[in-house]
Amino acid sequence: MGVKAAIIATFAERTKRRLEKESKEARQNQKDTFQQLLSKGTLTSFGKDHGFNEIKNHKDFVSHVPLRDYEDFRPYIDEIIAGTHHVLWPGRPLYFAKTSGTTSGVKYIPITKDSIPNHIDNARDALFNMMTRLKLKTLFDGKMIFLSGSPVLEEKGGIPTGRLSGIVNHWIPSWLKGNQLPSYETNCIDDWETKVDKIARETLQQDMRLISGIPPWVQMYYTRLLELSGKETIKEIFPNYQLFVYGGVNFQPYRAQLEQLTGGIINSLETYPASEGFIAFQDLENADDGLALQCNSGIFYEFIPMQEIASANPNRLSLSEVELGKEYAVVINSNAGLWGYNLGDTVSFVSLDPFRLKVTGRVKHFISAFGEHVIAKEVEEALEKTMMKHPCSVQEFTVAPQVNPPAGQKPFHEWWIEFGTAPSDIISFAKDLNEEMAKENIYYQDLMDGKILQPLQVRLLPKGSFKAYMQSIGKLGGQNKVPRLSNDRSVATHLEVYLDLGPKPT
């Protein structure tokens, strides 16, 4: 172990102990955070508009501050862009994180001097904690790669603006710069395919110890490495590879394919970052134990029971009020100046002491064309269980309702799947997948029992279809993700063109 790695290992052990202490103080940390946010928020235009000086407790806060999505915040963001100070948070944001919304087009999420540590420190803490738990003492003796967006920033209203991953790149500490790949010039390449090729060539001969990125894009990176090297597995190329860090999507659908490419199981670390804040990360060796909610980093959380999400006045629960196993929409109030902000994610708590959760999907990503309200967690788990019965690997998939099938047919759920290795019997695969879906969602079973729906159908897409689709809509690479499911045919319609290039539908 090198000198730098030894020094880092000492700090990493201290980080682990601090996180354990903070996890036991989560309720008090949330109360303190609430008061700190109110104190600062009182000085802002938003605080004056919403009577922050009259708020004494969470109940008062709920009555004064309505739930908002980005569109509701847009007038305040426009004020900031116009040059106004003290709008959502004292002063002006350090950055805007630029992200694309499903209904809002481009979104500009403020990042302030007070909120930047939430992104940077939580990422560091997640890495240090897992390094200690897995005893990866030589992790920092080699190279690390973070597959991210371009660090090139533009300006919006005089505020540096870019993808969150690109902004964070500017905050990589000097002690880590020597370990970081790819080069700055390569990281600035916009075209994703060109960028992946360049990254693969830059890293091919390096001593890679850590690789981080969204699973489908890491998969592209692995594939290109194997093409260039002529090797059969990533472990042959990087024999000292120790940790895979991911977030943004569920790893399970990609696990088999990535492990096949890697040449076996690799230690992994799951994170839950968003442009609006770094919410949680895996703090134990097994990701099945859930992600530790970060309760002492400038965010006060609220949770809305999913059955109330469409209500005019849903219950907004504090952390102390949540229950195990129930599904909630996440609402954040933060030192970035976000107030009553519906993050759009759904979570379920797997532990209340300490608070650990699993991300179950997106509020807007569901299928309920017939009242079934199928969510991402259900389709992912149904697919995972089916794959255990039918050995195969999945590159990517999405699910959509077919409300108007050909004459004489009943409606059905349509699964668009691009296999890495297809199952030997696709008809039996589809039958078992349908049975697993019925187990996951009782309403889905009821609709089939009532002859409202027929069993699901699988559309086999040729390799490269989802990549081509994402490229066609300008969202190839970076932090962009294919939605697991949608309540309309918007994605399915785009994918139909690729059916002609591959196997016939089942």
Low-confidence stretches: 501-506
Question: How much is the average pLDDT?
Answer: 90
Question: How many DSSP helices?
Answer: 18
SS-based structural class? alpha/beta
Q: What is the count of structural domains?
A: 3
With strands numbered from the N-terminus, the spatial order across the biggest sheet is 6-3-7-8-9-10-11-15-14-13-12
Oligomer category = single chain
What is the terminal separation in angstroms? Answer: 55 Å
Helix content: 25-40%
Highlighted features:
eleven-stranded mixed β-sheet; four-stranded mixed β-sheet; globular; disordered C terminus
Please provide a written account of the structure.
The protein has 506 residues and is of the alpha/beta class. The chain has 3 domains: 3-116 and 274-362, no CATH class; 137-151 and 172-266, no CATH class; 366-499, GMP Synthetase, Chain A, domain 3, CATH 3.30.300. Helices cover 38% and strands 23% of the residues. The chain has helices at 3-24, 26-41, 45-49, 58-64, 70-81, 116-133, 164-169, 174-177, 184-187, 192-203, 215-229, 234-237, 252-262, 376-389, 426-440, 442-449, 465-472, 490-499, and strands at 95-101, 105-111, 143-146, 154-156, 159-162, 180-181, 208-212, 243-247, 268-274, 277-282, 291-293, 299-305, 327-334, 341-352, 355-362, 366-367, 374-375, 393-402, 412-421, 457-460. The strands form 4 sheets. The protein has an 11-stranded mixed beta sheet with strand order 6-3-7-8-9-10-11-15-14-13-12. A 4-stranded mixed beta sheet has the order 2-1-5-4. A 3-stranded mixed beta sheet has the order 18-19-20. A hairpin with a 6-residue loop joins strand 16 (366-367) and strand 17 (374-375). Helix 10 (192-203) crosses helix 11 (215-229), helix 11 packs parallel to helix 13 (252-262) and helix 14 (376-389) crosses helix 15 (426-440). The longest helix is centred in the N-terminal third of the chain and has 22 residues, at 3-24. It starts with a helix and ends in a 7-residue tail after the last helix.
